[in-house]
Amino acid sequence: MSRLKTPSRRPLLWIGLALLGVLALAAWINLPVVGHLFGRSSERVAALPAAAPFRAGQRVLMLSPHPDDETLCCGGMLQQAQAAGAQVYVAWMTAGDGFEFDAALTERTLRPGPENMRALGNTRAAETQRAAAALGIPGDRTFMLGYPDGGLFRLFTTNFSSPYTAPRTRADAVYVRGALTPGAPFTGEALEADLRRVLDRVKPDIVLAPAPQDFHTDHHTLSYIALQLMAERRQADRLRFWVIHGGLEWPVPKGIHETLPLTEPPLADRLPWTRVDLTPEQRARKLEAVRAYRTQTEIEARFMEAFVRANELLSPQPLPESGSGQAASAGE
Ligand SMILES: [Zn+2]
Questions:
Q1: What predicted TM-score, i.e. pTM, was given to this entire model?
Q2: Which chain residues have CB less than 5 Å from ligand 1, an ion?
Q3: Which of 142, 188, 312, 328 could covalently link to 276 via disulfide, CB atoms 3.0 to 4.6 Å apart?
């Protein structure tokens, strides 16, 4: 006769098990030592080939869905490109004005209205300049496009030619200060036209874009449009891919662990990743750029800091190499 079968003890057992589960999850997310127990991800990173180095005279264009993506994925390699004599440009598709909880905190209000959300957009747009400066990128090599955060998929589907009204800001046209085309309607057509202007102006040799496997809708929508525009120019081979939203709480552990490797994102672990190793100085400046996004670090500092690692990852292809037998499923 088990004592656990006593009806009054059963709820305690479940509460105990639930607590254990939460503790295990917290340990996995936060403690490096737990991460080491799973898989051989660190060894896999060490075995990856080094990314092709940047060269003097190259023009590198970073396509960033939101303020901070450019720093999180690529803050180290953008410094390396410039140290090698390349020119680095950054274009942000949105000002990150869809994060209500963020506006509630930064605007000190419980129920942020459209004007609070627009204020957040302008604040985040200003933060891009501080982050870019920390990475050594001059302001005249940056472009804020200012389309709606969380709305890119709508722009390329239902709102390709008729303006989309963003639910949080109630805006249907670009309002962010310093935008490339102020007043441009929130349509796929207008965003595409802006991207073409950027490509014509920069004439990039290398374009850094989100991979299609990144599960944030704005990210994989931008991946699609970047592939489309570069293929049209017969320059799809100039694209290189990165991931921020890579699944399963990646990257773990959270927080600053700058000597740990950045492992392959679970959702895109079949891409032919290459490794970019960062020096301590590059990591320090990357962290400085992360912290320039004060509106974000107030909420998710530990997620953001987890991208300051010994290396960054870049894939020359958007899909796993053919012959792996996984291309169809992994490409979704
Ligand atoms: Zn993003």
A1: 0.87
A2: 65-66, 69
A3: 312
